[in-house]
Amino acid sequence: MFYQPKDGHGLPHNPFNAIVTPRPIGWIATRGADGQDNLAPYSFFNAVAYEPPQVMFASTGVKPDRDGTKDSVANIRDTGVFCVNVVEMAARDVMNRTSGPWPREVDEFSDARAPRAECSMIPCARVANAPAALECRMRQIVQLDGAANFLVIGEVVGVHLRDDCLRDGIFDITRYRPLARMGYRDYAVVQDVFALKRPGE
């Protein structure tokens, strides 16, 4: 099968986001200029640089009360900061609850009963029991082609690691089993790990 996206795929569901999988989930915490906390998951998310450490996420939807985007991007525009929380398998239902199309006045931390803690370097909340949390200062918001497509790039200025996820000086993902987004409504859990040496090592 071959198709050009501009012409449509002819399938019952769009296969695009099932092709690029698995995708890590950035559970993005923000705080509005009015002090209102927001928490929402994004599967267009990844780390993009080591020095300085940088991450990105993309928002592709719109809310009628947010001037052409969603709460997360609107808050970051106002405050310049956000926190990325890593999602573990044990938090899947809490994370899923925060993905709802709630009005801007809804505090997803409270609504989903996600434990909250203050960040150390930025004025923002984080998920207190997340395996890791990355405190970020926004570096760029890039408007991509298409309606309401925004790419947010942040520099990581603070890192929280949950103590039980460290083993012999290594951050061990098998201790918490990260959740990954597949296509459609499907998710996967990462629990099997193997190592490969690069040529010449």
From TrEMBL:
<dbReference type="Pfam" id="PF01613">
    <property type="entry name" value="Flavin_Reduct"/>
</dbReference>
<dbReference type="GO" id="GO:0010181">
    <property type="term" value="F:FMN binding"/>
</dbReference>
<protein>
    <submittedName>
        <fullName>Flavin reductase family protein</fullName>
    </submittedName>
</protein>
<dbReference type="GO" id="GO:0016646">
    <property type="term" value="F:oxidoreductase activity, acting on the CH-NH group of donors, NAD or NADP as acceptor"/>
</dbReference>
<dbReference type="InterPro" id="IPR012349">
    <property type="entry name" value="Split_barrel_FMN-bd"/>
</dbReference>
<dbReference type="InterPro" id="IPR002563">
    <property type="entry name" value="Flavin_Rdtase-like_dom"/>
</dbReference>
<feature type="domain" description="Flavin reductase like">
    <location>
        <begin position="18"/>
        <end position="173"/>
    </location>
</feature>
